[in-house]
Amino acid sequence: MSWHAHLHLDYRREAARSVARFRHDGPLRILQSLYPEGDAICHNVLVHPPGGLVGGDTLDIDIEAADGSHGLITTPGASRFYRSEGELALQRTRIRLAKGARLEWLPLEAICYSGCRAENRLTIEAEPGAEMIGWDVTALGLPNANQPFERGTYLQHIEVPGVWLERGRIDAADHRLLQSPLGFGGHRCIASLFFVSGTPAARARREALLALARTAIDAHGLQESAGATSPHAEIVVLRVLAPVVEPAMQLLRQVWQAWRAELWQLPASSPRIWAT
């Protein structure tokens, strides 16, 4: 039996508080809103009780943020794409940011189990004046548990329409991609951290973000397989390959904290659930 679950999450600013309201259909919802940084920033944890997707499952996540609101979304654990008997497992996330909105999209990693047939799609639409920091982390198999990614396919799609598109299909049978030094070089974690602005960012602002990312990379053990660039005036992105998730996530969190301080003058404030 397959699941088709949908969640619509809506951020609004009411007086001095960012407020989240949601509707859901199926096993997909958010926990209570938290305010560890004060009323201006609403922290939410997105929960999928089944814990993973099998062939035929679809998760649709729609997020909207209104002018003046600021939401931060994470998950309590990794997403999991399990082995499929032939049908596709699909997760679609659509984010729409109104003028003046801010959002932080910080889910934990997506794990691709051997034999999966999966697609993970993220689309971001930002009106002028809106800004977002987000990341996408993918783990191919579970190397530390001796569960390699030996069969299956995974499509990763990240798009800001008309501005930026990253799309790639990973096939476990493509040994040249997975093993070659011109491909993944044997690494099994692929991660990206990105800043999206609805208005072209000044060059000095983008250079400041790149400098922060490159300073962190130079001091990190993954310096040989990480890099930062600005492919468009509305985008800054850090990319990293790692043998496993933990060092990649450590680097992304470090740069995310530096970016939010630079962009929004906000201190490092990790979601509480990360400490559990």
TrEMBL record:
<keyword id="KW-0143">Chaperone</keyword>
<comment type="subunit">
    <text>UreD, UreF and UreG form a complex that acts as a GTP-hydrolysis-dependent molecular chaperone, activating the urease apoprotein by helping to assemble the nickel containing metallocenter of UreC. The UreE protein probably delivers the nickel.</text>
</comment>
<comment type="function">
    <text>Required for maturation of urease via the functional incorporation of the urease nickel metallocenter.</text>
</comment>
<comment type="similarity">
    <text>Belongs to the UreD family.</text>
</comment>
<keyword id="KW-0996">Nickel insertion</keyword>
<keyword id="KW-0963">Cytoplasm</keyword>
<dbReference type="InterPro" id="IPR002669">
    <property type="entry name" value="UreD"/>
</dbReference>
<dbReference type="GO" id="GO:0005737">
    <property type="term" value="C:cytoplasm"/>
</dbReference>
<dbReference type="Pfam" id="PF01774">
    <property type="entry name" value="UreD"/>
</dbReference>
<protein>
    <recommendedName>
        <fullName>Urease accessory protein UreD</fullName>
    </recommendedName>
</protein>
<dbReference type="GO" id="GO:0016151">
    <property type="term" value="F:nickel cation binding"/>
</dbReference>
